[in-house]
Amino acid sequence: MINTNRWIVRYQSHPRVRLRLFCFPYAGGNASIYRQWSELLPSDIEVCPIQLPGRENRSTEPPFTHVTPLVESLLKILVPYLDLPYAFFGHSMGALISFELARQIRNQCYPEPQHLFVSGRRSPHLFTSDYPIHQLPDTAFWEELRLYDGVPDMLLQNPQIAKFFLPLLRADFAINETYKYTPGMRFNYPITAFGGLQDKKVGSEEIMAWREMTNSDFYVHLFSGNHFFIRQEYHQILSIIARYFSNEIAA
Q1: Catalytic residue among 38, 92, 98, 119, which?
Q2: Start and end of every Thioesterase domain (predicted)?
Q3: Which of 18, 44, 162, 213 is most buried, most CB within 10 Å of its CB?
């Protein structure tokens, strides 16, 4: 692992990097979920997983509970790394963070991403009738988490592990559940959306609705799997990302 700062974890670096891929985690996730990605993408793509406060080497730092202060802090960190062409990838909560960060970047007139890859989350402009769970009593909160089909059993069944992760998970769900979409201009670069066909929380039509967020090309890829389909399908996802990057770098 290459230490850069607390926010960006780079597991490999190559001298001829032409494009950076910033990767944002799902609720309860951390930078290490993207550890293998740098090994599987072409060497001219530098994978830059984002380590949010409250996890792994930042476990003693309080996690954010609202998306706006989070993206404002992230933008200050990322500005020096926007000197090369780049793209964002985010799954679930990470898709929301990457979307709002891309809007902040546009508003501040910094170089914009070449591509936005969003995964496992409905388009942000869609209304959700989901009942907020981040303030539920512990037992009820864990029962709701079971609906996501993919939360590790050891987390749901081990009280000590559950107690350790509870504040982080509540904070991450608060980011999702306190979010209020504000209408704005569409992006002028492509968006690719990924979804799981058996995802109980996000339907295919909600994934495809991301087309409303861009004036440019829109692509959608649906895989067999639940909300955490990226754990099994990441090879295919990376193949798709590499193909799009190849076309964009060549252009």
Answers
A1: 92
A2: 20-242
A3: 213
